[in-house]
Amino acid sequence: MEATANTGRMVDVEILRQDTENGQSRWEKFRVPYRHGMNVISILMEIQRNPVTADGKKTNPVTWDMNCLEEVCGACSMVINGRPQQSCSALVDKLTQPIRLEPMATFPVVRDLQVDRSRMFNALKKVKAWVPIDGTYDLGEGPRMPERKRQWAYELSKCMTCGVCMEACPNVSEGASFIGPAPLSQVRLFNTHPTGAMNKDERLAAIMGDGGVANCGNSQNCVAACPKGIPLTTSIAALNRATTVQMFKNFFGSDHMVD
Amino acid sequence: MSKDREFLWRRLHSLLGVIPVGLFLVFHLSLNFTAVGGEETYNNATGNMDLIPHALLLLMEWVIIYIPLMFHAFYGIYIAFTARHNVKRFSTFRNWMFALQRFTGIFLVIFVAWHIFQTRVQKAFGTDVDFNMIAEIVDNPWMLVFYIVGILSATFHLANGLWSFLVSWGITQSPSSQRVATFITMAFFIILSIIGVVAIVSFV
Known about the structure:
The complex is a heterodimer.
Chain A: E1 10-18, E2 25-33, H1 40-49, E3 77-80, E4 83-86, E5 99-102, E6 109-111, E7 114-115, H2 118-126, H3 147-157, H4 164-168, H5 181-192, H6 200-207, H7 221-225, H8 232-252
Parallel strand pairs in A: 1-5
Antiparallel strand pairs in A: 1-2, 3-4, 3-5, 6-7
Helix pairs in contact in A: 3-5, 5-6, 5-8, 6-8
Chain B: H1 6-33, H2 39-47, H3 54-81, H4 93-124, H5 131-137, H6 141-168, H7 175-201
Helix pairs in contact in B: 1-3, 1-6, 1-7, 3-4, 4-6, 6-7
C-alpha cells in the first residue's frame, strides 16, 4: 500500500522518559520511518514495535495512554513541542522536528507519557458534576430546556476531562489545591441544566471552598489551550458572578436557596 | 488561615487592593504631583496633612493604609509563590499580565517597605517629610531609578489589578467586555504613570 510504503524519510523524536512514579526523568532520542499522514500515536506505536533509540541502543517501549483515537476521550493528552494537546490529532506533518514529547507534569507521572488525572475526576465529584434524578418513586419529566440554551450548553458539554487546560494553567499544580478550569466549567454546565439547577447552591458552595473558583489568576491560558474551544474563562467569570451573589445570600440570608 | 475560608480571603484580597489601597495610591500620586509647582506648593499641599489631629491621623493611617496594605501584600506573596509561570510556552498577552502582576507585586513589597522606612519611619524619629527630604533621596541616580521602577510597578499593579477585580467579582464576563476593560485599565495605567513619574522627576 502506498500509504504505508517506506518513503526513506525519518522523523526525529525526543521523549522525556520516566520509569517509575517520582523517579528520575531522562530524554531519549528516536528516529522513526515516516509514513504518510502519521500522527504522534503512530510514532509511539512504531517505537513500541522497535524500541531502539536513535543511537542504536535497545530500550523499553514508551508507555502512553490512549483510547478513542478521534479526540473525544481525552486520554492521550501530552505535551507536544511545548503545547499540551491530544497525541491522536497531532499530525507529524504539522509539527516541527525534532518532535518533543513530554508528560503533562502538572499531574503525577505514572510512567513515561502516562499521567494520573485522578484529581480531575475527584474535582468533578467534589462539585457534583451530574444531574441527580434518583428517588424512591418516578419523579416524572423534568422542566423543559429552551432549545437555544441547549445548543449553548452543548458547547460546555464537549469537555473530555483531557487535562490540557490544567497543564496550561499556572495556578494548577501538585502543590496547589486549585481544582482548575475544566471542573469549574462543568459547574456552569450543570447549573444551567433545568433539573441540575435544583442543586445549584450545592455546587456553588463546593467551588467557594478550598481550591475553588477564587483561585483563578486570570492568565486565560485555559481558553487558549482547550482543544474543544470551550469558553472556559467566560464560564469562570460567570461563576465569579454567581458566587458573588451566593456569598451575599449566605451572609445576609435569603429564602431563595436555589433560584 | 483556614483553607475553607480561602474564597473569602481571596475576595478580600481583591477588594482591599482597590479599596482602600488603590484609592490611596491615586491620592498619593496626585499629592506628589503638586511638586511640579515647586517646593512651596508641594510643602503647602502635604503640610495640610498636619492639620489633622495626630491621633486621628495615626488611626486613619492604620485602618486605611497599613492593615489593608499588609494583608494585601502578605496574602499576595502567598498567591504569587503558588504560581508556576509558563509565559515561554504560552506567550499570550493575558499570561504575560498574569506573570507581571506577580513580579510587580513581589517587587512592590520590597519597594514599599523601603519607601516607608525612608519616609514614614524617619518621620516617626523626628525628621520632617518635605520637598527637601525627597529631593535628597532622588539626588542619588540609583534611588531615582528605584523609585521610578517602584512607581511604574505600582501603577501597573493597580491598573491590571482593576482588570482582574472586574473579572473576579463577575462584572466583566464576556470576552468583549474583558477586552474593553483591558483598554480602559491600560489607559489608566499610562495616565497614572505619567502623573507619578513626572512628580518624582520634579524633585530632581
